[in-house]
Design brief:
Blueprint: H1 2-18, H2 26-41, H3 48-54, H4 66-75, H5 78-84, H6 101-133
Length: 141
């Protein structure tokens, strides 16, 4: 029986090597963040890059394909779901140095960049609203 495992050892080593996930590159991260932020305003702008990222995040389901995902979010708020699923998409169960930690941490970076973009957009919208609808009056000397 031991000799049987010897025959499988090279195959098992090869399988283990291919299980490692490659972290997202800075360009991939930027493309995903840009696309998902656009899709939060108009779900029809979601492309396969943003879709493939989102449906692998916790709290999102594939809806069978990109068009099914778009159909769902034509009726629901993608922004709200991104905000509500924040905690589940931090991949805290991976410590630096562990296998695939760099990949999951790169996914966390993307998720947090999307959230940052949404917060920045909300802040800008609030400032524009205040500027357009309120007059600042200085009282006192």
């Amino acid at each position: 029986m031991a000799s049987m495992w010897c025959n499988f050892a090279p195959l098992l080593a090869k399988v283990q090597l291919t299980m490692s996930l490659t972290p997202l590159t800075p360009r991939q991260k930027a493309l995903i963040v840009s696309n998902v932020l656009k899709a939060c305003d108009d779900i029809e702008k979601l492309n396969s890059t943003g879709y493939k990222y989102l449906y692998l995040c916790s709290g999102f389901i594939a809806h069978y394909n990109l068009n099914g995902f778009k159909a769902h979010y034509a009726e629901h708020s993608l922004k709200r779901d991104i905000e509500e699923n924040y905690r589940q998409n931090q991949w805290r169960n991976f410590s630096s140095g562990e296998e695939n930690a760099a990949y999951y941490h790169s996914k966390r970076d993307v998720y947090n960049a999307i959230l940052g973009g949404l917060v920045a957009r909300d802040e800008l919208d609030a400032r524009v609203f205040m500027r357009d609808h309120f007059q600042v009056i200085h009282i006192g000397g």
